[in-house]
Amino acid sequence: MAMIQVQDLTFSYPSSFDNIFEGVSFQIDTDWKLGFIGRNGRGKTTFFNLLLGKYEYSGKINSSVEFNYFPYPVSDPSKYTYEILSEICPQAEDWEFLREIAYLNVDAEIMYRPFHHLSNGEQTKVLLAALFLNEGQFLLIDEPTNHLDTDGRKIVSNYLKKKKGFILISHDRNFLDGCVDHILSINKANIQVQSGNYSSWKLNFDRKLEHEEATNERLQKDIGRLTQSSKRSAGWSNKVEASKIGTTNSGSKLDKGYVGHKAAKMMKRAKNIESRQQKAIEEKSKLLKNVEKTEPLKLEPLKFHSNELVVLKDVSVQYDGQTVNKPVSFKIEQGDRIALNGKNGSGKSSILKLILGNSIQHTGSIHVSSGLKISYVQQDTSHLKGQLSDYIRDNEIDETLFKSILRKMDFDRIQFEKDISHYSGGQKKKLLIAKSLCEKAHLYIWDEPLNFIDIYSRIQIEELIQSFNPTMVFVEHDLAFQQKIAVPGTQTILKI
User: Fold this and answer.
1) Domain ABC transporter, which positions (predicted)?
2) 70, 291, 323, 417 from 151: Cα distances, Å
3) Domain coverage including residue 421
């Protein structure tokens, strides 16, 4: 057991005037399974790079362990998988690699396939297996779930639960609950470390905010009452002081010593009230700094002239003459929210693209009602680049509405001036979702919309869909999101 100590860490990028971290101090145990959470753009991956020594910073990071990073950069993906794994962990024996990948439900035969022939999920699993075989290293795991299907996430979560000595960035609430024993959270005002999984952290975080809100309300009332008392006491003091030059009703002179003493008591009382008021203001200023405000999002789904929108009968996707999935049949009616569930490579995205009218080889039939307007959020964001103003113009988006949605999804105005290629993965996904929310459509097709998106925005999107009930077909492996949005009975979780 050893400690990683962060003392008075301050860092900003050379091109930015704002600090990503400012005077941050905390420590973590190298035996912990640490979940790392926070809003997109708060500095989670930046912190990983600081631990890896990639940037200069002020303050201290003290550690007796060596850090390694996932996803591991594979220089030559055309090599066989066993060669890649041997490069990552040269001291491991073949049987150790086979044991680790077996824990992850990966067949041994993939060791003798070129690495680039593996699915994204298989690549994730074998790289994690090799990295954990490096003894004495502390693993920095950056969003491993983005290429894992629902079953794959359960398998990897169970695998990580048996390990120790890692920090895991993930926005999948179920995944975190299954494998971490501490949470490192980057909040608006500070960084906190807490024992427990995500759910226990969220419960404690919400309770603290509820307590702060109640305290804030009480202090606001106290400040208002003290302000009025201070004004009255000051007024009384001024009146008494002014009476030094007056006389009584009978015409005799006032005792100026008595009046002066009374005025001094009134002034002292006023100052005491002001002191208590200032103390209450100072206490209030310490509260609610970590409140994550998420303004409600809006959507304008269109009503179609008939109830039935799309019908698929015995549809199987084919690539190079090979059938990808068993025949699938379903129909989309107004108000449906259908989740397509299945393993990576089972044809889910291809079925979405077939509904969109893409030319993909398939068997069976697809009927899309004439005049149906569809809004699409695609899985890939690699095409996003250039200025935001150009993106708005090219896609004929209402600029005011679009930027308003992005602001509600935690975009700073300074992001509007940056090249889109410099956005984080989560910010790029938010861009695609914001575009979809600007579009009035009969049907919304979203393909893994939550990849890289922070937990707060996921909850915000869940609330949006539950409020406006758009007709949707989507692929999303975040089980918490899937269960809230596609409820069996009225909505559907469809296994592909």
Assistant:
1) 4-213, 310-493
2) 20, 34, 22, 40
3) 308-495
Q: Is residue 43 part of a domain?
A: no
Average pLDDT, the chain: 89
In a domain, 470, yes or no: yes
Name the band, by pLDDT with cuts 50, 70 and 90, for residue 26.
very high
Greatest Cα pair distance in the chain: 116
Q: Is 347 left (phi over 0), alpha (psi -120 to 50) or beta?
A: left
Two tokens, residue 164: 């120790």
Q: Is 413 within a domain?
A: yes
Task: Please count the helices (runs of H) and the strands (runs of E) in the chain.
Answer: 14, 18
Residues 347 and 439 in one domain: yes
CA distances from 220 to 206, 227, 409 (A): 21, 10, 29
Taking only the tens place, the pLDDT of each residue in 366-403 is 999 999 999 999 999 999 999 999 999 999 999 999 99
CA distance 172 to 478: 6
Residue 123: count of CB within 10 angstroms of its CB: 21
Is residue 274 domain-shared with residue 312, that is, in the same domain? Answer: no
The phi, psi pair for 488, rounded to 5°, reads: -55, 140
Write out the two tokens for 22.
């400012």
Helix 399-408 × helix 425-438 angle, to 10°: 130
Which amino acid makes up residue 15? S
Considering the domain boundaries, does residue 457 fall inside one? Answer: yes
Are 391 and 248 in the same domain? no
